[in-house]
Amino acid sequence: MSIKLEKITHIIDEQHAAEENMLKAMKGGSYTIDAPYVKLNPYLIAPLTSLVHFTTPDETEATVLVKGKDKAGDMSFTFPKGKEHFLPVYGLYPDHANQVEITLGNGAKKNLTIQTEKAPASVHLPTKIKTTAEYLGSNVIFLSPTSPGSLAAYDYRGDVRWYGTLNFAFDVKRSKNGRLLLGTHRLFMPPYHTTGLFELGMIGKIYKEFRLPGGYHHDQFEMEDGNLLILTQDPQRGTVEDMCVLVDRTTGNILKTWDYQKVLPQDVGGSGSQDKHDWFHNNAVWYDKKTNSLSFSGRHQDAVINLDYDSGKLNWVLGDPEGWPEDFAKKYFFTPVGDVKNFDWQYEQHAVVVLPDGDVMCFDNGHWRAKVKEKYIPAKDNFSRGVRYRLNTDKMEIEQIWQYGKERGAEFFSTYICNVEYYGENHYMVHSGGIGTYKGEACDQPATTYRGDDEQYVTLNSITVELKDGKVMYEMHIPANYYRAEKLSLYCREDTLTFGKGEWLGTLGVTEEFETIPPVKDSGTIPDKYNLRLGQETDRLLVKGIFEKGQLVMVLLEGEQTHAYFVPTTKRPFIAMCVGTFLEADDRTVEFPVSFENLSGKFKVTLIVDENKYDTGVELIV
Amino acid sequence: MISEISQQEFNGLAHSGPALVEFYSKTCGPCKMLSFVLREIDKTMPDFPIYQIDFDANQELKERLGVKGFPTMIFFRDGNEVERMEGLKQKPAIVKAIEGLIV
Questions:
Q1: What CATH number does residue A388 fall under?
Q2: Residues in A lying within 8 Å of B, measured between beta carbons
Q3: ipTM of the complex
Q4: CATH architecture of B2-101
Q5: A475 touches A463 (CB < 8 A)
Q6: Residue A580, domain extent
Q7: Does the predicted model carry a pTM greater than 0.90?
Q8: pLDDT, tens digit, for every residue of A156-184?
Q9: Which of A530, A552, A556 would you mutate first to test chain B, the one with the most B CBs within 10 A?
Q10: Range with the lowest mean pLDDT among A52-61, A222-231, A317-326, A444-453?
């Protein structure tokens, strides 16, 4: 089989080329309000956005109005005064002749029709939405997928007004500069760890990719100075999801690291989903300025931990103390007070949020809802909820002061993922995005993990609820699983479009080489059965093939020196499959990246499979 | 010296001095790789006893020793566990652990 090295253009390069062409076209014409330049999906990955360009003889404001399917669905934004206008258009409907009105400060108007394409099937539609236009206004609810699907935003009618075509995963947050921070689509390590974070304008332009040697998962948090807390790990030590780093917003360099192995015992307090490899399963980070502390949610210890920002020392642990060493529990855990009859600990929780008054909220998945196997509660009898606790860290006491979801029972139960948001006193979001049934009954494992013939018995659901003063103001159901929900407006004054190439920051680090190379025989060219594909990105080589479980596979880069990399083919049983959107249909597929950090020169790419060494015929130049 | 042994043979060992016991599975890529690493170590430390035990065929012993996955390496001195490594490890880390046993 002859293998071709596929050159994979990074999306930042693709967008740069598209932008250059666009700028050339704009400069080449004399566009006016009556005959403007209109480019649909200018940055290739957000098909419901457009860019309108024209010049005016005098400085003037310009207002864009995207007409809704009814009046309340209108979305508009007024751009500051200028002569050269570059107006992003957001909130178009898919498969629709969108009516867009441009109005200048002097009253001049232009009506445009922008026809969009049908959204792909991966953009799921709501089966139920209950809210009012008055309540949601021009906000939309973004949902990031964990089952096959697309990141998309839904308005008060449940109509799709934005979606992305890249495999964006995990958290979506708006940064102070108006742009979105979200996980990259570049897989770093199976099953869902990606290379880092994107800083993305709503128009779809990627301004920055923050790359990390340990990859990115689950969550990030922007500090007051713009630097970023990002959840990561050190893959070389054989554990995952047990580290957080502070990343310089300008350079991408790592400024500080918090390693939970230094403050927690790893073999106690395990939830029903814990294993040695994923002993903590950190799924959220929050910085609290008042206490200068960091809170981290660890699903696999049923615990939210709080560390001093400067020293990294453990301050407290929020969770059921059963099973933890007595002296440790006495020092760090809380005792329930107040209405203890109705008090529940949280289990396998997600999305810790520290409120302005110091209260702590999270999504209590309640998975297993016990520390001891004999007491586990099955999904069909269980519940998930948003919960708010008040902590007294002097007395080490805890009081449960609010919850929503318990009363809905198994119908609202999510074994995994989900989040809560705090908007103000008595105003919350509770997003139960991981609901699933198998043969009609709520399941004890993410329903997305059923494969093959079992898939026909699975149903998925995601329920997003907003409550104000105890009243449900918004409820949306979508038949898929979504990691988080985030309420945002599409237009944001700070999210200004700037031209120029996006940046790669940070580093993927050096891929660990394996010192031992087994004795093998040269066996010619690689057989077709391995379906080997090699791709060269800007910063790494991607090796993809189909191998049987347990085969010994190594990639060799043979140049002046030989670099050898061991490729794992034994899948770890990821019980916590938070994001399944990177999974291949053939579960024997193995994807392995080799970072170009510290590599340079010409290399012959060869592959060892068990006792055979195969030539791929590919020469790699780094 | 590398030997493949069963749980009965393990029980019959003298359990004196240092030894490395590796639990492996035939269906495990990292175990195959580790086997080559151990053979390399054996070339430079031929007198050091390394015992390989099939994880799937020796249930009682793996449960008794609390071995939960493969590959797992347990470093013994006079029958007492001194160190345990889970997963594939590189030669220098294993050699360091062995040297720690011998000293």
A1: 2.120.10.30
A2: 238, 276, 514-516, 518-519, 549-554, 566-570, 610
A3: 0.92
A4: 3-Layer(aba) Sandwich (3.40)
A5: yes
A6: 510-621
A7: yes
A8: 999 999 999 999 988 899 999 999 999 99
A9: A552
A10: A444-453
